[in-house]
Task: structure prediction
Amino acid sequence: MATIARAALLSPFSTALVNFDHHVSSRNGPSLANIILTDPLRATPYTRLPYKPGRELQLQICESHRPDLQPSERLTATIHKMMSMTMSPVLDVTISVSEGTDIRAVLKLYDRRFGKDLRIGQRYAAPHMPVNEAMFQDFVRRGMMAPFFRELEEEKKAELLPSRPGHFLDSTLESQGKFEAALWHECSDHFACETKAYERLRDLQGKLIPDMLAHVRVVPFDSDALSIPPDLQHMASYFEVKGVLLGLIEGYSLEDIATSPLGPSDKAQWQPIIQAAAGAAHEINKRGVLMNDASPRNVVVDRRSQTPFIVDLAQCHFKDDLAELWHEMEWDKEEEYWDPDVQYWERASSDQNPAAIGLVAASRVRKMGVTVDLAFPDYDGIIANITAIKGLTVPIGEDSQLGRDR
Result:
């Protein structure tokens, strides 16, 4: 009884920990649950963050976008500080290169174990623990990943708002493995989305978004809880942490424009900065990319030029993917006048990326007694221009494509 009571103090999953001993230890050696239950002082309730200032990470380059970073080369990244950890750990690092000058950069890691907004259960935060990792390993070992991912992809096609990973989490052992698998899938999607967005927006790199330097993976170190079990080496991809190296924009968040010491002291300069940030979102939209997380917090203003840069592109929709989805839904067969370009801009009008940045930033400076007038895209004019060029006749009213896409 005392043993179980001690376990209950350590974790909300005490029942699962008790059962875990019988479920896993017979196949996989010493039981983590048994260690926690019998000697809680030896156990770490939550996985320790490995990304701390002063620590060195070994990175392997998977794809390089700089001549001094060679594919497959291993680099050392020294962490200066944690910049944020909402959906992903974002680190200010120095990269040591074999030839030339060291590179100061941003390292963004798609690590399912960390992210305060990533690891949310149905009603509570769900920080990573050793028991989660053990159940994930068991989930992988039993060959459950592929069928579960097929289930997630089918749901994504069928549902307007697919389930977040927290939907799968409850007090059972199986749910913990499934939760970690869903997080892995989401992080993998974020990495694929961000790298695709940077490729699509190549002409905006260094102007309105940071430069993409390289795609990387973290080389596990011996003490890392994410090290791969010997019997799962052939499934190593499920345990690797992917990342991107981005050019460092030294500055401040747009949401802090009214309070940051790095921002302009002349309040008259706030309006053109906010307007430029809204304009940057529209430039991204014009290149077939719609952001799901457009916000002032995802805009960094360069301290020297006071130019805003949009820095988070991990959650986006792409015009070609949307067109394919609309085709699968047979929208192109329902109405004679239907057009994917019109549909895209009606979707952009619904998402309102420029306003999501501009109006929110304007509301913050309004609290400081400053009113800014902003101009936003004329979506009706854009659509009218498309229909005129293509000779389309689009009815106005409730039956328009816009009403449906919203």
